[in-house]
Amino acid sequence: MANNSFLLHFVLKQNSFQNRFGNLVAWGTLSLVLITALVVILRYGFDSGSIALQESIMYNHALIFMLGIAYTYQQDQHVRVDIFYGRFSERKKALVNLVGTLVLTLPVMIYLAYASWDYIVASWQIHEGSADAGGLGYVFLLKTLILVLVGLLGLQALSIAAESWLKLQGVQIAHQEHAEGKL
């Protein structure tokens, strides 16, 4: 039972973190809209442009998606082939989530970390910047988001696996809105 208590505490803390972090990241969409509008106004209103501003749109886009993917996973809003899953009992859903996380999500995260490591290290070694004159100089930081994504999504996958395991053990888990007050 102590083991279940640890797992439950981890699930609640991780889900709480993802909720707060995901909501923070969501505000990045506002900066994305504002910067995009600025680029359009400058281009068509003043016949002026900025490579750095255009690249900042790409950076913002990457930040939003790479930092927000774990939140999307936690909210169960990711892409899912829902031919049978929607009709499954909660117990079968928990089993599918547990097996899917252990067999698919976590191994993919491990592979992604392994496959991207040299790519990211090489970028850091040369402090890689934009290939375009006047562009942003922090491509190495942007590439580092791959490892941040692996960490965030890996932790959330562990939380989903733990939550699924607890459900299979018959442990009831409060929904996030109610869990916030218990932390």
From TrEMBL:
Record field: transmembrane: 21-44, 56-73, 94-117, 137-158
Domain Tripartite ATP-independent periplasmic transporters DctQ component as annotated: residue spans: 32-164
InterPro entries reported for this sequence: DctQ, TRAP_DctQ
Pfam families on file: DctQ
Keywords, alphabetical: Cell inner membrane, Cell membrane, Membrane, Transmembrane, Transmembrane helix, Transport
Its membrane topology: Multi-pass membrane protein
Tagged with keyword Transport: yes
Localisation: Cell inner membrane
UniProt key word RNA-binding: no
Assembly information from the UniProt record: The complex comprises the extracytoplasmic solute receptor protein and the two transmembrane proteins.
Family: Belongs to the TRAP transporter small permease family.
The protein's role, per its UniProt record: Part of the tripartite ATP-independent periplasmic (TRAP) transport system.
Identification of the protein by name: TRAP transporter small permease protein
